[in-house]
């Protein structure tokens, strides 16, 4: 007699139970919206403070439910006075920011001027609008130039907004809560860093797609301070990363030597030319 | 950000808005709310600027998809500036409106954006033009647009009078925006108003808590 608590071993071959279950579910919704698979992402945040801009991001990159990269770099270099946080499709944010960075370097060399944040934003907006949302990049661009300290957001469809503080990614709502509560104009450096850190931390705690460490990037007129990581995850694993065992770890119980009988079938000599 | 999308007709950030423009004696008032939303549920910005200056005495209000509207206005600004340099004189308000109309009409299949254009020029004085979604261009004395406008047609029809004073018109515009923001979920934030006259341009921003309150609030 099989007890109800005994685990059933799976049968041989492929299991299409989920497909029939999905079809049955769809029937339940009667043509309405079926539940969509969960997509996870990131938490990025930015704050304008008295002397510049602080950007923050988590470092988790996910591929469905698996963490693909625990130390992913989400704050991308654009120019010596500008950095960009990217949320959305990782490849899209990487390439878009790379392209922007190259274009701005060329511009700098040609014109002899340092690029302005508005210029970077306009270039991003033109490019993303041209692709009508096909490039899944949600970007927070922050920088300091001769006109002041700026923080902009660019969406995947090409909409731009200039803001004093912002959070994006799947953990944005949690992070935004902290930012809304703690933000004031003209914060000091340490206050701004702490605000960004705690908002990204809130995103990490409340969202499955965000996690691991927190990176912080401080941009001021004097220069850039890229602190990676600013805060390490409390749940670090202690891997030794060494898989060599010293000799004698495994005891040799018996030894048997069998000489192999080999016949020489063909012998060729090739002279090596050392010139 | 996909969790924010529902079956909204506008993809991405929508301005789902209330915009209005009205002519008074000697000038024109143009104004909007400041809310940008995604999917009709998430407010992505409480302080988005929808009243954009396209020339010294010409302003435009945008409605619809934020990305489309910003892109069209950028292009229109550049065209208008070039036109003005060629003509060696400040552009007429109808020129700005026509440029927007051309862009909206020629690209009507790809765009989801509508505009109000208001301004002052030396030829016809204060004017207001509407460029709707498909590219229709008409001139009106007072006009409202956006999703929140449906709630204030009655108010505007009843309360607008031609040749008001500047103060009366500002009060009328503020009241209209406040009423619409009070009923429409995708309009809100602050009221951005711009007063354009021959002498110059004045920005008036009314924060949410200073907006006029009505009997059930």
UniProtKB/TrEMBL annotation, chain A:
SUPFAM superfamilies: N-terminal nucleophile aminohydrolases (Ntn hydrolases). GO terms for molecular function: threonine-type endopeptidase activity. It is found in: Cytoplasm; Nucleus. It catalyses: Cleavage of peptide bonds with very broad specificity. This is Proteasome subunit beta. GO terms for cellular component: cytoplasm; nucleus; proteasome core complex. Coiled coil: none annotated. One of its GO terms (biological process) is proteolysis involved in protein catabolic process. CDD domains: proteasome_beta_type_7. Gene3D superfamilies: Glutamine Phosphoribosylpyrophosphate, subunit 1, domain 1. Its main location: cytoplasm. PANTHER family: METALLOPROTEASE TLDD, PROTEASOME SUBUNIT BETA. Residues 237-269 form the Proteasome beta subunit C-terminal domain. Belongs to the peptidase T1B family. Component of the proteasome complex. The active site is at 42 (nucleophile). The proteasome is a multicatalytic proteinase complex which is characterized by its ability to cleave peptides with Arg, Phe, Tyr, Leu, and Glu adjacent to the leaving group at neutral or slightly basic pH. The proteasome has an ATP-dependent proteolytic activity. This subunit is involved in antigen processing to generate class I binding peptides. Keywords: Cytoplasm, Hydrolase, Nucleus, Protease, Proteasome, Threonine protease.
TrEMBL record, chain B:
GO terms for biological process: proteolysis involved in protein catabolic process. PROSITE patterns: PROTEASOME_BETA_2. Keywords: Cytoplasm, Hydrolase, Protease, Proteasome, Threonine protease. The keyword Protease applies. Signal peptide: none annotated. The keyword Protein transport does not apply. It is found in: Nucleus. Its EC number is 3.4.25.1. The active site is at residue 17. GO terms for cellular component: cytoplasm; nucleus; proteasome core complex, beta-subunit complex. Pfam families: Proteasome. Gene3D superfamilies: Glutamine Phosphoribosylpyrophosphate, subunit 1, domain 1. The 26S proteasome consists of a 20S proteasome core and two 19S regulatory subunits. The 20S proteasome core is composed of 28 subunits that are arranged in four stacked rings, resulting in a barrel-shaped structure. The two end rings are each formed by seven alpha subunits, and the two central rings are each formed by seven beta subunits. The catalytic chamber with the active sites is on the inside of the barrel. The proteasome is a multicatalytic proteinase complex which is characterized by its ability to cleave peptides with Arg, Phe, Tyr, Leu, and Glu adjacent to the leaving group at neutral or slightly basic pH. The proteasome has an ATP-dependent proteolytic activity. This subunit is involved in antigen processing to generate class I binding peptides. This is proteasome endopeptidase complex. It comes from Poecilia reticulata.
């Amino acid at each position: 007699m099989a007890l109800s608590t005994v685990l059933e071993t799976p049968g041989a071959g492929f299991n299409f139970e989920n497909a029939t279950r999905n079809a049955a579910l769809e029937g339940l919704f009667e043509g309405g919206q079926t539940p969509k698979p969960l997509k996870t992402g990131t938490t990025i945040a930015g704050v304008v403070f008295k002397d510049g801009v602080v950007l923050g991001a988590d470092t988790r990159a996910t591929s469905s439910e698996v963490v693909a990269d625990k130390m992913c770099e989400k704050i991308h270099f654009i120019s010596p006075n500008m950095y960009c946080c990217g949320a959305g499709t990782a490849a899209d944010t990487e390439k878009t920011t790379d392209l922007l960075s190259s274009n701005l370097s060329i511009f700098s060399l040609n014109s002899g001027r340092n690029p302005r944040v508005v210029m970077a934003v306009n270039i991003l907006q033109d490019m993303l609008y041209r692709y009508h949302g096909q490039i899944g990049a949600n970007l927070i661009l922050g920088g300091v130039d001769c006109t002041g300290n700026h923080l902009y957001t660019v969406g995947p469809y090409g909409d731009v907004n200039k803001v004093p503080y912002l959070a994006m990614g799947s953990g944005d709502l949690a992070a935004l809560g902290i930012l809304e509560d703690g933000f004031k104009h003209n914060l000091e450096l340490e206050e701004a860093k702490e605000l960004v850190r705690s908002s990204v931390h809130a995103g990490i705690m409340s969202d499955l797609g965000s996690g691991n460490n927190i990176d912080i990037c401080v941009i001021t007129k004097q220069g850039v301070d890229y602190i990676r990581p600013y805060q390490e995850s409390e749940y670090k694993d202690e891997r030794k990363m060494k898989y060599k065992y010293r000799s004698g770890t495994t005891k040799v119980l018996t030894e048997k030597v069998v000489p192999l009988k080999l016949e020489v079938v063909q012998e060729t000599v090739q002279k090596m030319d050392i010139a | 950000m996909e969790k924010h999308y529902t079956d909204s007709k506008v993809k991405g950030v929508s301005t789902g808005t209330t915009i209005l423009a009205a002519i008074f004696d000697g000038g024109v008032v143009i104004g909007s709310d400041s809310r940008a939303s995604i999917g009709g549920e998430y407010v992505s910005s409480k302080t988005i600027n929808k009243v954009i200056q396209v020339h010294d005495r010409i302003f435009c209000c945008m409605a619809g998809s934020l990305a489309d509207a910003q892109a069209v206005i950028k292009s229109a600004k550049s065209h208008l500036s070039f036109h003005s340099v060629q003509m060696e004189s400040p552009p007429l308000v109808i020129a700005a409106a026509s440029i927007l109309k051309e862009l909206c009409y020629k690209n009507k299949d790809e765009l989801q954006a509508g505009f109000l254009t208001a301004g002052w020029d030396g030829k016809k004085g204060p004017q207001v033009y509407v460029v709707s979604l498909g590219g229709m261009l008409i001139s009106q004395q007072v006009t409202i647009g956006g999703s929140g406008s449906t709630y204030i047609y009655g108010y505007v029809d009843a309360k607008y009078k031609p040749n008001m004073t500047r103060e009366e018109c500002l009060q009328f515009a503020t009241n209209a925006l406040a009423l619409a923001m009070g009923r429409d979920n995708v309009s809100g934030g602050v009221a951005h108003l711009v007063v354009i006259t021959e002498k110059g341009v004045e920005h008036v921003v009314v924060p949410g808590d200073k907006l006029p309150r009505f009997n059930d609030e």
